[in-house]
Design goal:
The chain is 48% helix and 14% strand. The protein has helices spanning 4-23, 41-47, 52-73, 92-112, 128-141, 157-173, 179-185, 188-192, 240-251; strands spanning 33-37, 77-84, 115-120, 147-155, 205-208, 227-230. Strands 3-4-2-1-5-6 form a six-stranded parallel β-sheet, with helices on both faces.
């Protein structure tokens, strides 16, 4: 067990390191768009002997803090994966409290001010109450000139691609064009125009917590040229210094954009 004196010393050293790390970052090497896979809430709760819902609550609290950090370094867009399409198959006794936590979190993010909320996901797969909260948050913040926050709820990368192609085909078919002409319109540019994140820059950096080194279907199309950073910390334990290390790692890389 750490003594109070040792703890104070540790905090002082940590604070000094954090400030030095922050000063070392170059403003012109910051990502415009960060995607974050918030993983590890359930493991965090179980490690403490708490119910799973406590982990989701702790993880939800971390989101606002993370967005503040992004604001501080000049990030323009953040995509937060809060619930996947696969998560919708979880037992009701876990899923229902999680949906309530998500609803409360989105409402709080919209009420803070300075952030524009944009839902990304298959809202038709969600309970009507959850979908309505997401839509209301988007409407309430649509004219906000600030950090754009994509809240990915009921999101799956494969589902997004299927929805994009379906939307493209329906749009073109409504014009009465032939199958041959329709086939010619199914290209990279036109599919991109029908993604959930249409009109936004693709993520420069994708962060995943909890030590898992996989995307799991997150922004499959948009992350083709992204940089990735995998952190061992469980999401509720993700610290400002972990965030700064992710930014530093990104800034030190030579991005080739597939060339």
């Amino acid at each position: 067990m750490r003594t109070p004196g040792k703890q104070r010393l540790r905090n002082a050293v940590y604070g000094l390191y954090e400030r030095r790390l922050a000063r070392s970052l170059s403003p012109d090497r910051m990502p415009r768009h960060i995607g974050v896979i918030i993983d590890g809430n359930r493991r965090w709760a179980r490690a403490s002997g708490d119910p799973v819902s406590r982990g989701h609550e702790a993880g939800a609290s971390k989101i606002s803090e993370f967005l503040d950090w992004c604001d501080e370094v000049g990030v323009k867009v953040v995509t937060v994966w809060m619930l996947s399409t696969d998560n919708l198959t979880r037992p009701a006794d876990e899923l229902e409290p999680l949906l309530r936590i998500i609803e409360q979190t989105v409402e709080e993010l919209a009420a803070v001010g300075g952030r524009r909320i944009h839902p990304v996901g298959a809202l038709d797969l969600l309970p009507s109450a959850t979908a309505e909260v997401l839509k209301s948050a988007e409407t309430a913040t649509q004219h906000v000139d600030g950090l754009l926050v994509n809240v990915a709820v009921g999101y799956g990368g494969r589902r997004e691609l299927a929805d994009a192609v379906r939307s493209l085909l329906l749009e073109e078919a409504a014009k009465g064009i032939s199958i041959e002409e329709l086939a010619e319109r199914v290209d990279v540019e036109h599919i991109a125009e029908h993604l959930y994140t249409k009109g936004q820059p693709d993520p420069d950096l994708v962060i995943r917590t909890s030590g898992e080194q996989r995307l799991g279907g997150f922004l499959l199309w948009q992350s083709a040229l992204s940089e990735f950073y995998f952190c061992e910390a469980l999401w509720p334990d993700f610290r400002h210094v972990d965030f700064l290390r992710a930014i530093r790692s990104y800034a030190q890389r030579e991005r080739r954009f597939g060339v």
